[in-house]
Amino acid sequence: xxxxxxILLMLLIGACGQSAEREYELAPNKPxxxxxxxxxxxxxxxxxxxxxxxVVAIDAAASKGHAWSTSxxxxxxxxxxxxxxxxxxxxxxxxxxxxQGELAAQQADTEVAAWQEKVx
Length: 120
What we know:
Structural class: mainly alpha
Distance between the termini: 37 Å
Mean pLDDT: 81
Shape: elongated
Largest sheet: none
Number of strands: 0
């Protein structure tokens, strides 16, 4: 009896031990990997363009309830760099804020898909 119990327990534990990466690979309707956005990052042509794109991305994430707290801080740092005349640094920071906004929106989509798959 103990042997049967232990075998069943081992099977149960083994079945529950599937990695998150494996679950992601098997998931239907999975969103693209988060790295897809950062791999394609090209610097914006101007600070104004970078800032506007960051605001749009952060607002999109916020509309999904997933704006990251660090995005606003990056935008403020970008504004400060622009005021100080360091446009290159301002573009970098605004682009980082944009990427965070895009990743936050993608995280929201991933969580919705996971919720629908696992719970509903």
